[in-house]
Amino acid sequence: MNWPQLHAALNDLPAALLLVAVLFEAAGALLRRESLRAAGYWTLIAGVVGTGLAIGAGLMAEDVVQHSEGAHELMERHETLAFVVLGIFAVMLLWRLVRRTMSRGETTAYVVLGIIGVGVLVATAHLGGRLVFDHGLGIRTARLSEIQQERQAAGTGEAHHHAEEAGHEGTGAQAPPAN
């Protein structure tokens, strides 16, 4: 099993589900539509379960991925925030299980907690992105070396690749120098 790849594959859907769950809840509260709140409830269940699975895969990936000490510290912060995200949304789920009907003030507090949870979720995702893009986690050291050699052999680096994708080839526009 390739735990780093599984972790990466399991991250996006739960994050989207948790965000959408909060949006459904907020819209349901504002519009007083129980159908939107029900959609938020079911989306929240799927998001919490998916978050648990993503965390499990991340814990397994931590033990097998090559990383530096600096990356390890960042990984620990990412892990801690992931557990905070799971905790916030699990509390919200329990809240919904216990309190099917909420007062206006309770609903406001519930949605505010969801917004805070989304903020922590975004911070967690940002750290995960830094682990991959700044520290190369999940990419074997040998493969990183191959990629570096491929870029050097191409002689133009990422800027040339971007220019081709943007349709600048043959237009006289020059790509900025590679770093």
Structure write-up:
By secondary structure, the chain is mainly alpha-helical. It has one domain (3-137). Helix content is 80%, strand content 0%. It has 6 helices and no strands. It has helices spanning 3-31, 34-64, 69-98, 104-133, 141-154, 157-165.
Keywords, please?
179 residues; mainly alpha; 6 helices; elongated
Mean pLDDT value? 87
* C-alpha end-to-end distance: 35 Å
Q: Mind describing the biggest β-sheet?
A: none
Would you report the number of β strands? 0
Rounded to an integer in angstroms, the radius of gyration calculated over CA atoms is 21 Å
Anisotropy-based shape: elongated
Give me the secondary-structure category: mainly alpha
What percent strand?
A: under 5%
| SSE string, helices as H and strands as E | HHHHHH
Query: What's the helix count?
Result: 6
Query: How many domains, as an integer?
Result: 1
The residue ranges in which pLDDT falls below 50 over 5 or more consecutive positions are 168-179
What topology does this entry show?
Layout: H1 3-31, H2 34-64, H3 69-98, H4 104-133, H5 141-154, H6 157-165
Helix pairs in contact: 1-2, 1-4, 2-3, 3-4
